Amino acid sequence: MTNPTIPYTVPEALESDLAEVHAYWRKLIRGQASDMPYWDDVKLSDLPALADRLMLVTAFAKPERFRFEMVGKEIAAQYGRDVNGRFADEVDVKAPLDFFRSQASVTVESGKPSYFRSAAYARLLLPLWGEGHVSMLLGAVVRL
User: Fold this and answer.
1) For an engineered disulfide with 136, which of 80, 92, 121, 128 has Cβ 3.0 to 4.6 Å away?
2) Does residue 132 form part of some domain?
3) Half-sphere exposure of 130 (CA within 13 A, CB side)
4) Residue 29, domain extent
5) Residue 8 is assigned to a structural domain of this protein
6) DSSP letter (8 states) at residue 66
7) Is 1 inside any structural domain?
8) How many structural domains does the chain have?
9) How far, in Å, CA of 45 to CA of 140, rounded?
10) More reliable by pLDDT, 32 or 80
11) Is residue 11 part of a domain?
12) Separation of CA 18 from chain center
């Protein structure tokens, strides 16, 4: 059996700010114990220059839902309003959150980073482990 193609595959060359977030995420992985960092190891204060372009999202399993816990100011400005504390299925589908739910679902299901790019922006979602499953996502959005 061949390995299935995972949608939203991360390209080899990322935009520099997304590459920085990805490198930070990889640095947090605890040796061979896991393929991803634990959510409580993430400190957004470690990436102060990117804070406005970052988001933390809680992932719920049954039913599958995603709640925006912390959304940076630049993401909120691009979207047109603050979405902190709201579920992804409660917000309008528009940039920079279009295709967000499908990308988040792929990230949780695969346990791997995912990437989306439009003409105006690129988005990276990174899985975070907690309580025996992918419980949070670290996201970053950059304008192109």
Assistant:
1) 128
2) yes
3) 16
4) 16-143
5) no
6) E
7) no
8) 1
9) 14
10) 80
11) no
12) 10
Q: Tokens in use for 137?
A: 């996502």
Give the pLDDT band of residue 90 (cuts 50, 70, 90). very high
Determine the pLDDT at residue 31.
Answer: 76
Q: Which pTM value belongs to this model?
A: 0.95
- How do residues 70-86 score in pLDDT, each as one tens digit? 999 999 999 999 999 99
Average pLDDT across the chain, whole number? 95
d(CA 2, CA 24): 31
Residue 141, judged by CB atoms within 10 A of its CB (0-12, 13-18, 19+), counts as buried
Structure tokens at 141: 């959005």
CA distances from 82 to 3, 41, 78, 92, 105 (A): 39, 25, 10, 12, 22
- The CATH number of residue 92's host domain is 3.30.450.20
